[in-house]
Design a protein that fits this description.
The protein has 279 residues and is mostly helical. It is built from 9 helices and 6 strands, in the order H-H-H-E-E-E-H-H-H-H-E-H-E-H-E. A hairpin with a 4-residue loop joins strand 2 and strand 3. It is globular and about 60 Å long. Bound molecules: pyridoxal-5'-phosphate (PLP). InterPro entries: Aminotrans_3, PyrdxlP-dep_Trfase, PyrdxlP-dep_Trfase_major, PyrdxlP-dep_Trfase_small. One of its GO terms (molecular function) is transaminase activity.
């Protein structure tokens, strides 16, 4: 959900809901022409017909989604505004209504095809509606959808074994969670319990989730509320383009060491960082 870095504007203290609305404005500003993250502005991408003037040509693809006759952009936007939290926002002034997905492609309400380079906010890498994935989901859902780890069922153990077999080194134990926030909350909790230390080193500009511990690890003002967030120390992020030390990795490493030496007891529970910061 990284939307703007919080550095775009000086703000008066605001109630939380207003802050979310202002995140929305910052997001729009960040995506405005000239601030766009890519050479094509968001509006241009949304407006460009597939393979039309200015749009990169996509290869042929042997799938055409069935004609869509469901609710369209205006109706969905109106219903969202009425029944969902005002904290939700969307990309683009005229938001995309994504109605179909197949492998690496998405289709909007008019059947227009998009290459999905953002799957699951850059976290889901199995594409859309892969037949093997669908088959596994349907087969399991037909048998039983949920019990609890307090009872036995072979599926979770088989899945853990299959995942562990793909992992390198000592990464052989799996802990399933429902979201990135939950995974990071758990990782921070495990690190703290195992080490007996509370301090965590995180990187500025990072996003790790929006619950108690992960909000502390997150380092973007847009995504923080005014609640207690203890024990996280934010070192400089090694951004080769905008970072204080350019691409001098040793200087960033030294900043982490100094953060530990001068900001903590010297014993930290762990270090958390995205493999690649996506904003
Ligand atoms: C790097 C990173 N970590 C954690 C999260 C939180 O994941 P979730 O939204 O599934 O709780 C996100 C979500 O965008 C993320 O991008």
């Amino acid at each position: 959900p990284q939307a703007g870095t919080g550095r775009e504007a000086e703000r008066e203290p605001e109630p939380d809901m207003q802050r979310l609305a202002s995140s929305r404005r910052l997001l729009r500003a960040a995506l405005a022409p000239g601030r766009a993250h890519s050479s094509l502005s968001a509006a241009a991408v949304a407006a460009a017909p597939e393979n039309g003037a200015g749009a990169p040509k996509m290869p042929p693809f042997a799938y055409t989604p069935p004609p869509y006759d469901g609710p369209r952009v205006a109706e969905i936007a109106q219903k969202r505004a009425q029944f969902l939290s005002p904290s939700l926002f969307h990309f683009y002034d005229r938001p995309l209504n994504i109605v179909d997905g197949k492998m690496q492609y998405l289709f909007d309400e008019d059947g227009r095809r998009y290459l999905d380079a953002f799957g699951g906010i850059a976290t889901v890498c199995c594409g859309h509606c892969h037949p093997d994935v669908i088959e596994a989901i349907v087969n399991q859902a037909k048998k039983i959808q949920h019990s609890t780890v307090l009872y036995l069922n072979h599926a979770i153990a088989d899945f853990a074994e299959a995942l562990a077999s793909k992992m390198p080194g000592d990464l052989k134990v799996v802990f399933f969670t429902n979201s990135g926030t939950e995974a990071n909350e758990l990782a921070l909790m495990i690190a703290r319990l195992y080490t007996g230390s509370h301090d965590i080193i995180s990187l500025r500009n990072g996003y790790h989730g929006n619950a108690a511990a992960t909000m502390g690890a997150t380092a973007q003002s847009n995504w923080k509320f005014n609640v207690v967030q203890t024990g996280v120390h934010h070192a400089l992020n090694p951004d080769p383009y905008r970072g204080a030390f350019g691409s001098d990795g040793e200087k960033y490493a030294r900043d982490i060491q100094e953060t530990i030496d001068y900001g903590t007891t010297g014993r930290v529970a762990g270090f958390i960082s995205e493999a690649i910061q996506v904003c």
